[in-house]
Design brief:
Blueprint: E1 11-12, H1 14-23, E2 27-32, E3 38-43, E4 46-48, E5 51-57, H2 62-69, E6 72-78, E7 82-84, E8 89-103, H3 107-118, H4 123-133, E9 137-152
Antiparallel strand pairs: 1-9, 2-3, 2-6, 4-5, 5-9, 6-8, 7-8, 8-9
């Protein structure tokens, strides 16, 4: 079920939302565990049109257990913000993605996108790092089903 944005006057268009996902420094992955307790964790990520890639420990941990229990996730990226004290408000931009997460079909692609985003000046070293550790790291992809962006300038 997709909810309508209450403040539709602040809705970002699809191009601006995608740009925010491309430029975002980190995102918050929200999952729900077997105990029905929500869990949100910040992580580095790479956006590639209809997918978001991230890496973590392989086959272990809270995030992994929750994903195994329920593949439905929410992923939030917050861009530029500025508190406007005299207006009792905030200037902001954010993107919210809903989708399903699974182990990446192409781990190497996900890791290369992360290197290109976070370490573009060290691609060669990143490639060798990937080859060394590709079998020991978990790489996941979120298949985007719905996304919205919102902002107040």
């Amino acid at each position: 079920m997709v909810h309508e944005m209450r403040r539709s006057d602040r809705q970002l268009d699809l191009t601006a939302t995608k740009q925010l996902l491309i430029n975002g420094e980190y995102g918050i992955l929200s999952t729900v565990g077997e105990d029905n307790i929500p869990y949100g964790v910040p992580l580095s990520y790479a956006y590639d049109e209809d997918r978001i890639y991230f890496h973590c420990a392989k086959d272990v941990g809270h995030k992994y257990e929750n994903i195994r229990h329920n593949a439905k996730v929410c992923f939030t990226v917050i861009g530029k913000t500025q508190v406007l004290p005299e207006q009792f408000s905030t200037s902001y931009e954010s993107a919210v993605v809903f989708g399903t997460v699974k182990p990446a079909t192409d781990k190497r692609k996900g890791l290369l996108l992360l290197v290109e985003k976070y370490s573009p000046a060290f691609k060669e070293k990143g490639h060798s790092y990937i080859e060394q550790d590709i079998d020991t790291v978990g790489v996941y992809e979120i298949n985007i089903e719905h996304m919205t962006g919102k902002g107040r300038k």
